[in-house]
Amino acid sequence: MTKLSDLGPPIPGKRHGGEPANEQENFMTCPICGQQIDMRDFRQVAHHDDPEHEPLELDA
User: Fold this and answer.
1) How many domains are there within the chain?
2) Is 1 inside a domain boundary?
3) Cα(13)–Cα(42) distance, rounded to whole angstroms?
């Protein structure tokens, strides 16, 4: 299992069209593994883009 820290330092993204109305809009559920993805962190987005990925092990 891949750890989030194994992907390197955070790569913050920028939202197009303004900030989300609430904090929940920053997250989505991955349709492949069911894990929550922080859409503000490109590392997580890129990891979950691979159709054969496993969930990330989140660092404590």
Assistant:
1) 1
2) yes
3) 6
3-state secondary structure at position 35: coil
Instruction: Give the C-alpha separation, 50 to 32, whole Å.
Output: 9
Please provide the distance, in angstroms rounded to a whole number, between the alpha carbons at the two ends of the chain.
Answer: 15
Nearest by Cα to 53 from 2, 4, 7: 2
Q: Is residue 19 part of a domain?
A: no
Query: Nearest 5 degrees, angle CA 8-CA 14-CA 18?
Result: 155
Q: Which pLDDT belongs to residue 21? A: 58
- Per-residue burial over 28-37, b if 16 or more Cβ lie within 10 Å, else e, is eebeeeeeeb
Residues of the chain with pLDDT > 90, as a percent, come to 42
